[in-house]
Structure formats: structure tokens, C-alpha cells
Amino acid sequence: MPATSSTDPLQRERDHLAASRAALRVMREDVESLDTTDVTGTWVTAIVLNKQIEARIAALADLAHTPLFFGRLDYLHAISEELAEGATGESFYIGRRHVHDAAGDPMVIDWRAPVSQPFYRASRTDPQDVERRRRFGYTGGELTAYEDEHLTDPAETDAASALLAAEIEKPRVGPMRDIVATIQPEQDEIVRADVGGTVCVQGAPGTGKTAVGLHRVAYLLYAHRERLARTGTLVIGPNDAFLSYIEQVLPALGELAVAQSTVQQLVAHVEVRAEDDPEAAGLKGDARMAEVLRRAVRAGIALPTEPCVVVRGSRRWRVPVHELTEIVEELKARDIRYGAAREALPQRIAHAVLLKMEQGGEAPDDRVQDAVARNAQVKAVVKACWPPVDPAKLVHRLLNEPEFLAACADGVLDEEEQRAVLRTKPGRSVRTAPWTPADAVLIDEATDLVQRTASLGHVVLDEAQDLSPMQYRAVGRRCSTGSATVLGDLAQGTTPWATADWAQALHHLGKPGAHVEELTKGFRVPEEVIAYASRLLPAIAPGLAPATSVRDAPGSLTVDRVEDGLDAAVVAACREALAHEGSTGLIAADARIPALAEALDAAGLGHLTPGTETTSKARLTLVPASLAKGLEYDYVVLDEPAAVVAGEPDERTGLRRLYVALTRAVSGLKVLHAQPLPEQLAAVPAPVG
Ligand SMILES: Nc1ncnc2c1ncn2[C@@H]1O[C@H](COP(=O)(O)OP(=O)(O)OP(=O)(O)O)[C@@H](O)[C@H]1O
């Protein structure tokens, strides 16, 4: 660490910050000045190299609002170099990324390095050899404060960290931020869990599931960079608005190569242009459909009825029906993909021909076998016995032809269920068929039955509770040889097929042994608000413990009955909320959105839609309840809870939707209603004891 002349401890830290920023600038300039014109190799290599350089330059950006380091650890004993990115000594600055000086000596250590871990986990009861933990406070990019904990000093007692509280309270404008400076011990356990295992996190609203999932990918990329760069990583979220809300977290942590997608985008084999009714959607998402599809894919397999005769030169070679049957039966019994078996079949027949050639005194080699496999007679047998399968056509047929569905679903779906799955208006072509989201998942399953889906190294699945079993399977095949982080909250499930217990979900995902962790400490929602929302828990998720909140903000909840002029009251509440710093979300039943948009417009209050970034100028978002999941606002105005509940097909789903809407606020929630509140919300639970 560079020497500094000041004796003022704060100034010394500032000097180190200035020196680190200068060093980062030099690192960036070094990369920028790399000349690739001399690099021999193809133009492809040059393009790849330039891309890598560009990514590295972007990763080395010095972002004014994300301080280079946020903590410092002073150990009692020197740490070995391998644990500290080559640094030696007892004292280390912890930051978002590694920074070294011109001599290559580290000035800031990456938060993911082993030496940084005690910053998140060390405590008075388990100091992990840390003598002092220092947290830094910044104002507008300037280092302005620090806070120390002397973990081995018996005279010092635990005090709540003001810097930590300030960081959590910071008004939210713009996209989601990273939490590297303040990851909590129980969160860190998940972030740093071994890459080999799948972790499932059940967590109440605002407990940091999304944050933890994103930091976990960043951690895994650090710890297993090469392997995961090769296999790839993916974050799955519920919709585009959510994905754009979280998209800047990983780049801010220097990770630019993580793909993001919704489940629907993953399975976009056809153009979706229709919706199923809930019953059909539920059945199509049921895991039993996997068996129906397995049978459908294999329905075309037929045993041979004629021998295969191959003519080569002046000789004819004949594979009799019983031998062909044996080959087909053997392939049927093997646990390989339909397409792989289809590729193996001509080779097997050719092999049988070759054996006959050898018996006939010839000495054919591998090239002969390949040529025989391509012979027209052999191809004809393959076509008849193991016809090609087009997954979309197959599913189209299944949904259109009652007899075909009946044959494939025999003993799996009863007659009524089959009727529900069938299209009401059959007969259109694959291209123009009224495909639904659930159909696309069926096609994905069929595609995988024909040809194995490539697996990524790690997949983070957020808001998992809304997935159907067939959707879990679709995600599962994308991490079949990798691992997953599954994040969700059973109380926030708003699909008819929402997950009822995690063991089932993990079974469908293909990770039955995965660990389930629970997070209950809430960072977003103030105590009063979470307590109010938790009144719904007995009705929507009886087994779940209510979340606690790390933040007590008296006065953060108001519930007002409006006798007359709800829209005007809502507009006034938005105006009032906007008088505070930070973002405001007006959440309402989807059906109420047009009327409220009009009221806001008439009042001259500009408003955004979810997924559009809030800025210091545009801070009001009008949020349909169906899109509120995963999002958060400093202030929330919630319009007419009864309408939010009524917007869903059944009461439990409606109350769950309301629970989501009630748990989006960081600083204040104002509920306005003209209709009576749902009784579960109005009821004040009897005092305990
Ligand atoms: N350790 C932490 N330090 C500071 N802020 C945190 C911490 N953990 C979570 N937060 C903040 O709390 C808020 C909620 O986090 P997040 O969105 O990850 O929760 P969630 O469990 O996914 O919520 P939901 O179930 O509602 O989607 C975010 O603003 C996040 O940055």
C-alpha cells in the first residue's frame, strides 16, 4: 500500500482512494493502447481479441457513483498471497474490482477474493482473525466518513452501523443497484455457495433474493472464470420490465457477459399469439405432459416389414426383417435422444451389411460402412422405421387431432383433460396456428426429446414460484450439467399452477437434492408496512413465517378510505409522494390503469411505464399490478386493493397479487380505497399472549 504523508486518518484513506483511481486509470490506458494490428492470425481472432479488449476497457471504467473501495480489513496476522490476489501484509482495501499499481502490487482487492470474505462474515463471536473492519461512507463520490469495528476488543460492544443503515435507506432512482458493500452474513453464505450445488432460496418480499442471485453469478464468474466463460451463465426473470430493472447490476460489478432472458424467450420456437384458458394452461404445464410428448415423439417408430437389400457392384447384401427388428428394438430400449438414435440406425444397418460382406470374403473398411449407411435402401428403412420428427409439427398435431392425443395420453390424461388440451378450432398450419405460451414450452420439451438441449454452467432463476412444472423442466435442461440458483417466494405465486412446495419444484427442475435456504430479514419494506401486508399470509401461504424488517420507519403506512373522487385522491397522493426525494410507483389493478393514466395526464403529472428507467426528472411510474413483481419504489400509492384482488381469477391469487403490491415500498406506502378493503387486510390479528 502506498505511503501517504498525512497523519489525519480520513485524509490517509482519501489519499489511498486518489492513488487507487490513478492506478485504475493507468490500467485502463494500458489496455486502450494495446495494438492488435501486429497480432498474427486470422481476422476472426482479431475481431475476438478486439471484442475482449473493448469488454476489458468497459470493465475498467471508473464510475463516479460507484466508489472504488468500500471497506478495509486489518488482520491480526499476515495473509497468504494466494488468498489476497497476490497482495501481502495484514491490511486490505475491499472494492468492486481488483486494482494494482504500476509495479503490479494490489491496491484494492476484489470483494470476491477469499481474503475479503470476513468483511461480510466476521463477527465478535467469530472474528476470523480480523482485528478491525472499517466501512467507508461516500457523498457524491467523495470519501467523507468511516466507521470501525474492533472485533477482538472485548471492551467494544455491538452498535448498529449508521453507514449500513444509510446505504439501505438511500433513495431509489434509476435501475437496481449492487449491494457489495453491505451483503449480510446469511446472504453471503448463499452468494459464495459452491458452484457444484444448486441452491434454492425461499424469501419474503425484499429480503434480497434478486440481489443475492445476481451477486452469486458475479462470485461464481470470479471463482470459476474459465469454466463458466466456456459454458455460459444466464439470469431468468419474469418479464422485460424486471430484466431491464436489474440489467445494470452485473455490469456495475464488472461482469458484462451474463445473458438475461424470460422463460418465454428461452422457448420461443414459434410465434405466440394466443392465450390458453387457465384450465388448458394448467394441464399443458403439468409434468404429465412430458410423458404424453415422449410417447408422441416415439409414436412414429415402426418395426420393419421388409428386408433391406443393398446392391454394391455385382453383389447384393440382404439384412433380413428379424435382424432389422432386433436393431430397431435395441435402439428403442436405449436411453438416448430420438435424433441420436435416428442417426445411429443407418450405421447399425450398415454394420450388419459389413458383417455379411466379411462373411462373404470381402474386406470392407469404415468408408464402405459410411457409404452403405448413405445407400438409398438403407435410408428408406430409416425413413419408414424412424421417421424424422419436427417438434412444432408434432405438438401441432397433438393439439389438433383428438385420436393422436388420445393414443399418446392414454392412461395419463382422462377424457375431459384431453378435451381441455385440444384446440377448439383445429386445422390451421404450423406457421399460422394460435400458439400459446404453454404450447411453446411443449415444443421445447419435444425439441429436447429429439436433440439434447445444450446446458449452461449456471442459471439463476428468479421469481421461480410462478413457473409450471413444464417450465421448470425447460429451465432444468438448460442447466442439466451445470447448477442453478432458484429464488422465489411461495406467497407471491400468482399463476394458477404456482409452486406449492420447493421440493416438488426442484424435482421438476432436475435438481432434487438441492438445498433450500430461507431469508426472512427484509431490507426493502419498513416494519409497519410488512406487518400490514403479512396479515394476508394466513390466507395465501399458511406455512410461511412473516418477514421482519431491518428498518423501522414510523408513519410509513397510511390507509385512507375515500368517499368520493378516488382518482383525484390518488393523483393528490402521487403529487405528495413526489415532493419527497426518490421514485414513486402508483400501483393499481390492470383494469384501472387507463383511467388513472388519464387522471394523471389531466393533472399534468408525467408518468412512466415499468421497464422505463426513472431519472431525477421522471420519477413517477404507473404500474399495473400484474407487472409489480420484483420492482420497488421509494414511495408507493396503492389504488383500490379490492380491484387488485378482483382482477385475478380466484381470491387466493388476488390476495397474493395484493401482497406483492403492498410490498414494493422502501419509505412509504399510501393505500387509498373507495370499496371496502379485503377482510383479511382489515382484520387486525389478535394480540399474541
Ligand atoms: N444486504 C443488503 N444491503 C443493502 N440493501 C439490500 C441488501 N439486501 C437487499 N437489499 C436491498 O433490498 C431491496 C430488495 O432486494 P431484492 O429486490 O433483491 O429482494 P427480493 O427478495 O428479490 O424481493 P421480492 O421478493 O419482492 O422480489 C433492494 O433494493 C436491495 O438492493
UniProtKB/TrEMBL annotation:
Specify the domain of life of the species encoding this protein.
Answer: Bacteria
Question: What are the alphabetically sorted keywords of the record?
Answer: ATP-binding, Helicase, Hydrolase, Nucleotide-binding
Q: Where is the UvrD-like helicase ATP-binding domain?
A: 182-526
Protein name per UniProt: AAA family ATPase
Q: Does this entry carry the keyword ATP-binding?
A: yes
- The residues forming the signal peptide are none
Tell me yes or no: is Hydrolase among this UniProt entry's keywords. yes
Q: Which InterPro entries match?
A: DNA_helicase_UvrD/REP, P-loop_NTPase, UvrD-like_ATP-bd
**Positions bound to ATP:** G203, A204, P205, G206, T207, G208, K209, T210
